[in-house]
Amino acid sequence: DPSSLIPAASAPPPAAPPPRSVPSLLGGVLAVCEAAQRDAFPSAAAAVNIAPTGRAGADYQNNSALALYGTMKAAGALPEGVKSPRDVAERLAERMRAHDREAIFAKVEVAGAGFINIFLSERWLAERVKAIVTHGVLPPPSRQLEVVVDFSSPNVAKEMHVGHLRSTIIGDTICRLLEFCGHHVRRVNHVGDWGTQFGMLIAHLKNVFPNYSSEPPPIANLQQFYKDAKLLFDKDEAFKKTAHEEVVKLQAGDGNSRYAWEQICNVSRREFEKIYSRLEVDLQEVGESFYNEYIPGVVAHLEEIGLAKPTDEDAEGRCAKVIFPPGSKHENPLIVTKSDGGYGYDSTDMAAIWYRIFELRADWLVYVTDAGQGPHFDLIFEAARAAGWVTQQRLDHCPFGMVCDEHGKKYKTRSGEVVRLVDLLDEAVHRMRDGMEARRVEAEASGAYGGRAPNMAAEEMDHASRVLGYGAVKYADLKGNRNSNYNFSYERMLDPKGNTAVYLLYAGARISSILRNAPVTPAQLVAMGAAVELGCEEETALAREILRFQEVVEDATATLLPNTLCEYAYGLCGQFTKFYQVCRVIDSPQQNSRILMLSALEGVLRKTYRLLGLGYLERI
Ligand code: ARG
């Protein structure tokens, strides 16, 4: 019966799938302006130029008319009746209104010599806020890329220092941003697990723990172990000889040496893990050793294409192979083979970049290290380009400044030693916990709880102090522009009134508590079809700030600058405070609209904190 193929009239239309991304405000404005320009001046190929703030209280400004006029005039292609940039602006503005299908604009106004002021519609802003409650906090749209982020990357048996901590924290946030935007991200820990130092470490291991092959060596302090081995290496000729033999055996793949090497790496790995698990950072270890088998082929290729060249012979008649990338401003070359035939840091990074481009097929490579390695990565990128490996790929070295103490000196303990990272993190948590305990005692004494028990159990307090303490360390690291040095200070990073994670988490908890105490939930309001209404200045300002989220994510991702996200989080909390000073929520006539607004705000804050690697506390 053919009629059975026709759906019954009563069948509901298939529901539209929920959106997976949402254009930023700027993206939405840009799309309309581009359509308008194509329509008004189809033959003029000039980029649309939108500034994020306009005059006279406008939200955005379209500044395209002047350049457009210039381009068309130079080409002798000015249309009939267009005599000035202002005429161009008038035509653009008219088309912008026509193309504004979603009614994004409240007003589009030509000003001055040909600027176009754009005022967003409050109705539209209100709907976008509501959409956050309905669909969740969505990323801006982007084409999925394959990204490799090389970060953290400490060295086996040497200390993992504050620089590695910075790389771990900054790299993790960059990965979170890229993942949120829908990219496929490989979080690569390029651990320094290879090199000649392993000769002396293995030799020392075999001396001190001859049972290493049947039981894991009980090395309590690998740094000390390294120092002891180095001391022997420097003064004991026989030991030095054994160490050299061990390097040769290791590189030749000798089973025992390889096993000993693994044992040493394991000890280090366990130490690194302590940091990663405290910080909840996910990393895939692909250490230097992994690229070893690729190096000879890569070097041979670089020689074949004439990029790697032998140096002059040294006194013993040996020569290294080096690359001076054409046009480089650096005087030092990359050393792809040392004069003794061995490979080093440069060789490994050439093999690694080759592997990431050709085997992993990455579109985007990001390396997060201290600024001191800038010249190294310049050379690696220049050499890869000169070799013709780089077509569409984006290559970024993402440098960061030093960690200093309050006086601007390199961060060390009182006795001048390197600070153990585990201790540093634990210290932040302890201080937070002590502060909470002191406040609790104080509040209890002053009767702040009205004679009732304090509102937090010990485990909840432990959990909160971990979220606050680790969050504080991370945020302090992220909030400055990463290119500058930053001064480490517990007092400053734990200050609940400063621009700190502690402040942000308290603000979040305050918002959550308002929502928790509301007589109706956001979900109920959505089901009821309640709307967001922007009645006063503070409400509109808060809505705008909430809706800037996608723009900020786009910006932070494109520039790989997490501080943009910190500034946003801090500004958003400030905007909330202004709102809350004048806008009552519960039991106000605008209650339902304001609950929806706070629910959107809570969603955006949670997401922003997540991107920064911070936890979230419903209550503190
Ligand atoms: N292990 C190096 C260090 O501690 C950082 C490695 C960075 N990544 C790279 N592909 N070179 O300085």
Structural summary, described in words:
By secondary structure, the chain is of the alpha/beta class. The protein contains 21 helices and 14 strands. The chain has helices at residues 25-40, 64-74, 85-99, 122-135, 162-180, 197-208, 222-235, 237-251, 255-279, 295-304, 345-359, 374-386, 421-445, 458-479, 490-493, 501-516, 522-528, 537-547, 549-559, 563-582, 591-611, and strands spanning 50-51, 60-62, 105-111, 115-120, 146-150, 184-189, 284-285, 309-310, 321-323, 334-337, 364-370, 394-400, 403-404, 486-487. The strands form four sheets. A five-stranded parallel beta sheet has the order 7-6-5-11-12, with helices on both faces. It has a four-stranded antiparallel beta sheet with strand order 1-2-4-3. Helix 12 links the parallel strand 11 and strand 12 (394-400). Helix 7 packs across helix 8 (237-251). The longest helix has 25 residues, at 255-279. The radius of gyration is 30 Å and the shape is globular. The relative contact order is 0.10. The model has no long low-confidence stretch (mean pLDDT 93). Bound molecules: arginine. Arginine is lined by residues 150, 153-155, 190, 192, 349, 352, 367, 369. Residues 27-120 form the Arginyl tRNA synthetase N-terminal domain.
Summarize the structure in short.
One of its GO terms (cellular component) is cytoplasm. The protein is α/β, with parallel strands linked by helices and 620 residues long.
